[in-house]
Amino acid sequence: MKQIIRITFSLVFLVSCNNSTKNKGEREFIPNPEKYALDEYLEINDSLKYKFTPDTLIGQLSLNNTQNVNEYLGKDVMKKLIDDSLPYSSVTSKDGEQRLTFYFHPGNIVNTFSEFKVSYNNKKDRVEEVTSDRAFKTESGIELGMTEGDILAIKGKPQNRVNNETTVFHYKIENMENSEFLKTYNMPVYYADYEFNNGYLIEFRFGFEYP
């Protein structure tokens, strides 16, 4: 059923694939595929709409989990963190086109990261660890280059939709008392933001808000 919904959205926003295209994701990009995306979603019967399910994995990493950190991010990753409002560092995809940024919450266990951000790599002069992944993808299949319709089909309607120069879908899980997910991680708030330009996903970020 989920596949049927995704196909429905894809038919609304995409034209046929062009094997020779050089665009990201081997998909022929068309201008403004977001047109009518939210309206089309709202017209779907509620019983067929998917409710928001949080992602916790990106590549080989998991939120607040030390497993695979050294293998995926390189040894001594904590020494590479840039001390900003939240300490962070980043790695790139195999072809250098995408960047995965990971954030450390002060007070956490070493090598546990509570927020992840994926974006296109616009600063290729930076020296970073290179992963074996061509693209950074979550366990629900979220990756750069998807359309607004794709995200709606996977994540459901966002709690907030902000339209400025770009469009951002914002999802949040709070109220720890009623959330088994938050209780499992012992964290008060989880969020996910998906940013689109001309209808295509150019950046996404998810994880736990710093207290």
From TrEMBL:
Q: Which PROSITE patterns match?
A: PROKAR_LIPOPROTEIN (PS51257)
Write down what this protein is called: Lipoprotein
Species this protein is from: Formosa undariae
List the lineage, top down: Bacteria, Pseudomonadati, Bacteroidota, Flavobacteriia, Flavobacteriales
